[in-house]
Amino acid sequence: MDLNSSPPNSNSNTAIPVVSTFSSPFENPPSAQDGANGSTRKPISLWPGMYQSPVTNALWEARSKIFERFFLDPPKDAPPQSELLNKTPAQSRTTILYNFSSDYILREQYRDPWNEVRIGKLLEDLDALAGTISVKHCSDDDNTTRPLLLVTASVDKIVLKKPISVDIDLKIVGAVIWVGRSSIEIQLEVTQSSKEGSDNSDSVALSANFIFVARDSKTGKAAPVNRISPETKREKLLFEEAEARNNLRKRKSRGGDKREFENGEVNRLETLLAEGRIFCDMPALADRDSILLRDTRLENSLICQPQQRNIHGRIFGGFLMHRAFELAFSTAYAFAGLVPYFLEVDHVDFLRPVDVGDFLRFKSCVLYTEVNPDQPLINIEVVAHVTRPELRSSEVSNTFYFTFTVRPEAKAKKNGFRILNVVPATEEEARHIVDRMDSQALLSTRGFGK
To answer: Which GO terms describe its molecular function (predicted)?
Structure first.
């Protein structure tokens, strides 16, 4: 399938089919013609990322003509793109389709214990699709120039709007909606019919916005990207909203939204710390409806493997989100004593790249809870550290914030279910909790990440 076969300004609605990876549908014996021409194309199974997800297989095959540029080793003196192009959102729009209703093996690859789609695996797919869309937009279709290095810079709030069944076909549609000098924003929507066989139009089950930045593959410096020309009314609205979010990010990076802990803020800190001090100094007298933050911690670690790398040889951002989600889910489960239900991922920054061979540690905790009888909220923080024992160093690569509630059917079976308050033991923990609460409230009021 060649996604570039459409005229430059047309929008092809052909979806990329996702198939199970029990056996590769793309591994055909080389033809005599390929042998005669000395084709340099690697088999799909030897390309980076082939061990991640069925979606990765489908995307790499569909975009093979662009992706092959990364493996043909352009000359060291290959020039950068000489002239920026104007592209429309339609030119980068890409759709992938999960044929869950007819592909049993694919369905089993994505099924969770509650007959829904595994959210961690879906987060991985979203990053893979966003990466493909960024390449489509930034490509100049000139094999004589060196391709850009495109990396995930951040992810805005990802919101689950309804349960996603694994028995009904699923569709993800994404496109570039905003472009800066060297950064692009991509919006993705996961849609699914309300019920199997429904004639109603698909409804949005999950939405996400990814920010990618471009670097010159030779110098490593920021590189300009193709411009964008929104055409429809909705595209122009999405562009304006993304522009506002970009301005907010700039203000935050300059410290424009930094809050000082004075007067009322100090009182909030003292209130949080008061109960924590009782836990530390007089544990027998502590409130049985609360727990220290440090007692909610979990941790796991791994060595990053070559199978988890992207086209640039670094670890997929989607893989990191997948692993962070699995730990956050386990943390919420161990804390609540009931099966958690995912609601959203707050804004995620990718602070530093993670390389093959890195020793990666994920540390989680319940940061705070909201005790609502109808829908209690459990806010989990997961911090990823790249650890180098030989240098005695550890650097944060990512910080993730997940929000869960508990599954209604699980809560209904447990009479007297209650969720504990989380209290800090140190002033640093208290400040961190207040910062997160205020940041989330600020983002909600300004519509950031929606």
So the answer is: fatty acyl-CoA hydrolase activity
pTM score, whole prediction:
0.80
Token representation of residue 361:
């540690």
The pLDDT tens digits of the residues spanning 434-448 come to 888 877 765 554 444
Tokens of 345: 């991922």
CB atoms within 10 A of CB 283: 9
Share of the chain above pLDDT 90, in %: 40
Q: Supply 110's token pair.
A: 């994505």
* CA–CA gap between residue 121 and residue 172 (Å, rounded): 14
Count the residues in the chain: 450
Residue 311's pLDDT is what?
67
* Residue, of 127 and 14, whose pLDDT is higher: 127
Could you tell me if 196 and 222 are in contact, meaning their C-beta atoms sit under 8 angstroms apart? no
Whether residue 197 is predicted with pLDDT greater than 80 in this model: the reply is no
DSSP letter (8 states) at residue 314 = B
pLDDT at res. 39: 47
Angle at 154 between CA 229 and CA 177, to 5 degrees: 15
Query: Is pLDDT at 420 greater than 70 in this prediction?
Result: yes
Which domains are present in the chain?
16-21+45-251 (3.10.129.10), 263-447 (3.10.129.10)
The span from the CA of 398 to the CA of 384, in Å, is: 5
State the angle between helix axes of 54-62 and 119-138 in degrees (0 to 180), rounded to the nearest 10: 10
At which residue do the structure tokens 């020309």 appear? 229
CA distances from 244 to 148, 151, 450 (A): 26, 22, 12
Residues 302-321: tens digit of each pLDDT: 998 887 777 667 888 888 99
Pairing of strands 86-87, 227-228: parallel
Distance (Å) of CA 196 to CA 15, 71, 96, 110, 170: 19, 42, 19, 17, 11
- Reading the block at residue 72, the tokens are 């043909």
CA–chain centroid gap for 151, Å, is 12
Q: Which DSSP category does 26 fall into?
A: T
**CB neighbourhood size of 309 (10 A):** 20
Beta bridge partners of 165: 116
**In which residue are the tokens 């919006």 written?**
187
Phi-psi region of 306 (alpha: psi -120 to 50; beta: other; left: phi over 0): alpha
Residue with the larger pLDDT of the pair 178 and 6: 178
Quick one: average pLDDT of 280-294? 83
Whether the Cβ atoms of residue 291 and residue 364 lie closer than 8 Å to each other: no
Q: Where are the alpha helices (DSSP H) in 288-354?
A: 317-336
- 248 or 351, greater pLDDT: 351
